[in-house]
Amino acid sequence: MRHAALEALESLEEEELRRALGRLSAADRRALAAHWPAWAHQGQLPPEGNWRTWTILAGRGFGKTRAGAEWVSGFARSRPDAAIALVAATADEARKVMVEGRSGLLAVARAEEREEMVWEPSRKRLVFASGAEAFLYSAANPDGLRGPEHHIAWCDELAKWRHAETAWNNLRLGLRLGERPRALVTTTPKAVAALKALLARADTASSGGPSWANPHNSEDFLDAAIEAHAGTRFGRQELEGVLLDDVEGALWPWALIERSRLGAALPRERLRRVVIGVDPPASAEGDACGIVVCGLDDEGIGHVLADLSAAGESPEGWARKAAAAAEAWGAHRVVAEKNNGGEMVASVLRGAGIGLPVTLVHASEGKAARAEPVAVLFESGRAKFAGRFPELEAELAGLSCGGFYHGPGRSPDRADAMVWALTELLVRRHRAEPRIRRL
Question: How far is CA 189 from CA 58, 130, 221, 233, 243, in A?
């Protein structure tokens, strides 16, 4: 929870803020600056509860290192007898990031503490002003963690550790000093076995967030990073702090999604046919209406062109969006699932002004089963993503060949709409059809 005094200061205009800070005594200003809970943003403070391990999974620049350094420093102040383990992928990273870094332990120490701290790089030891000691370890040498005992541990970038499972197990067995030995893991997420196993434990608490949750990041950095990586697997992992892992038997593993991505959509004149796939929701309060535009080029390659899916719309509302998509893309046909609404689906689509053929398809098998032939098209290179479609891709990654769905939301509506469109373009036989043309 943020400090009430800071929240009051943040609500002031610049001139009022300057006057308010001017009225504080020098001691009050130092105290406020040194009070970490006043400045921490959500996800940087320890969660409540009787956890043994706290993991901060977050994007780059979130403030993971600062959170770790402040947690360790606070413990060192309260326990002069503390023995603390600092573990990184290498001893050099532990020194440069966890101790000497811009947000490391030396940097976050209070002014009066720095004079009394003793940093001994050759001995890989940091002595705090209170007398507490922190020892540096390399996860590349897991046997170095066999034997030493500690009260707490701070583990940085566990997802990078070369011998993560062995190093973590040796460290955990050495956390046996004091009444409540605990560990903090700060890492950009990556689906390594040791991290996945740790997150699955009942005594693990988690926090974190995206890079832009840190108000101190420069806008230039964020703009450039988002422009370069938004919507990609790399961006979701490194910027959003999302742990991406392939579900068992995934029809669209993340590697396949990335391999199937093109830089941009083809010009409309290079597309032989365009189809709008529509997966209507059972009700306006239910799932989204999947609306996905797909096209076929002269070489017989299918392209996912746009995801225009909409949630919370009435039948007339989503029908208008489908009609607008058909006009904008010069579509030849709309393919819509009729399970939810039957012939009403065609009626609302035509009522919205769609003047081209509407094919109603009946879903006689599960979403994952009818998606399998389309997944094969991507595997063989006959279907591509013409850009980035984060929500659609997350749903596709949640479909498995076992017939289960493990993705976001209750149902893969966007994925289903895409499957209907690509099935129409690439699986069924076709004849020439009229399409909407702009005058």
Answer: 7, 34, 20, 12, 5
Tokens of 280: 């209507």
Contacts of 319 (CB under 8 A, 6+ apart): 348, 349, 351, 352, 354
Note the helical H segments in 35-108: 36-39, 64-78, 91-93, 105-108
Beta-carbon contacts of 429 under 8 Å, excluding residues fewer than 6 positions away, are: none
Beta strand 261-262 pairing with 271-279: unpaired
What is the set of domains in the chain, with CATH numbers?
A: 1-39 (no CATH), 40-207 (3.40.50.300), 254-427 (3.30.420.240)
Taking every pair of Cα atoms in the chain, the longest distance, rounded to a whole number of angstroms, is: 83
The pLDDT tens digits for 68-88 are: 999 999 999 999 999 999 999
Query: Per-residue pLDDT tens for 187-198?
Result: 988 878 788 889
pLDDT score recorded for residue 408: 78
| 135 neighbors 84 (Cβ within 8 angstroms) | yes
Cα-Cα-Cα-Cα dihedral sign, residues 382, 388, 389, 390: positive
**One-letter identity of residue 24:** L
Phi, psi of 163 (to 5 degrees): -115, 60
Look at the chain and count its residues.
439
* Token couple for 146: 């066999």
Amino acid letter, 247: V
State if pTM tops 0.70.
no
Q: Does residue 430 surpass a pLDDT of 50? A: no
